Amino acid sequence: MSIEWYVVLSALLFAIGASGILIRRSPIVILLCLELMLNAGNLALIAFSRMVGNEQGQIFALVVMVVAACEVVIGLGLIVAIFRRRLPLDVDALRELKG
Amino acid sequence: MEEVLFFAAALGALGGAVGVIAMRNPFYGVLALIVHLFSLAVLFLLLTSAFLAAAQVVVYAGAVMVLYVFVVAYVGGGEESAWEPIPGQRLLAPLLGLALVAELAIAVLASSLRALGSDGPDVAAGFGDPASIGTLLLEKFLIPFEASSILLLLAAVGAIVLAGRRREETA
C-alpha cells in the first residue's frame, strides 16, 4: 500500500473528529472527538516516519500519546468536578466565562 | 494480503469514528472509540511500528478507555437536548467537515513529495521494535522523555485537585 492511502485516511479521520466537535454538545463526546483528531495526527506521523524510513517520527507519535493521556485525565477531572456541583453537562449551558 | 488488511482496518477505523459522533448515548460512543483504536493499531502494524501498536492497545484501549467507561458510568449518559443555540449548526458542521476533507485531499494529491506514492524504502527487520524505540528514547530524545514524565505527574496531581472531594463537602 502506498503511503498516500494512509495520509488520506488520516485526513478523513481528522475531519470526522473536527465535525464531531462542532456537532455534539456533551463534554464527554467532545473529549472523545479530540481523541479521534489526535489519533489521526498519530497515523499521519507514523505514515511519514515509514515514508522517510526513520523511526524518529514514531517517538513524536509516542509523545502525542502521552499528551493525549494527560488531556484525558484533566478533561475527565473537570467533568467529574462539574457533575459534583450539579451543573448541567452541556458546553452551551456552561457559558459563565463568555465575554 | 496487505491490501485486504488495510481496507479492513480502514473500514473499522472510519466506522468507529462515525460511531463516536453518531451515537446518542456516550457509553456506546466509548465502545465505538475502542473499535477505532484497535483498527488503528492494525494500521500501525502495517506501517512496521510494532511498539506503537502495542502501546496503542495497552495504553489507549486498556487504560484510557477504562477511565472513560468509569466516568460515563459515574456521570450517567444523558441524552442531548435538541435545542440549537446557533441556528443551522447541525447542518453547517458536516459541510465544514467536508470542506476540511477537500482541503486536505487537495494538499495530499497536489503535494510534490514524490515518495508519497511509494511504499516507503525497505527497512531493516528491527524497524520500530521496542529495542530501537527504547534506544532512541533514552539516547537521542532523553529530554523530551523526561519532560513528558513531568507532564504526566502534573496531570495526575491536577486531576486529584480537580476531582478530589473537598473538606467542606465531607463534613
Brief account:
The complex is a heterodimer of chains A (about 100) and B (about 170). Chain A is mainly α.
State Rg of chain A: 17 Å
* SSE string of chain B: HHHHHHH
End-to-end C-alpha gap of chain A = 50 Å
* Count of distinct structural domains of chain A: 1
CATH classification, class level of chain A: Mainly Alpha
Helix content of chain A: over 70%
The helix-and-strand class of chain A reads mainly alpha
Summarize the helix and strand pattern of chain A as letters. Answer: HHH
> In CATH terms, what is the fold-level topology of chain A?
Helix Hairpins
Decide which structural class fits the backbone of chain B.
Answer: mainly alpha
Number of strands of chain B: 0
Number of strands of chain A: 0
**Low-confidence runs of chain B:** none
Q: What is the name of the CATH architecture of chain A?
A: Orthogonal Bundle
Query: How many strands, what sense, and barrel or not for the largest sheet of chain A?
Result: none
Largest sheet of chain B: none
Strand content of chain B is: under 5%
Largest interface: A-B, 68 and 87 residues
Average pLDDT for all residues of chain A: 89
**Regions with little confidence, pLDDT below 50 for 5+ residues of chain A:** none
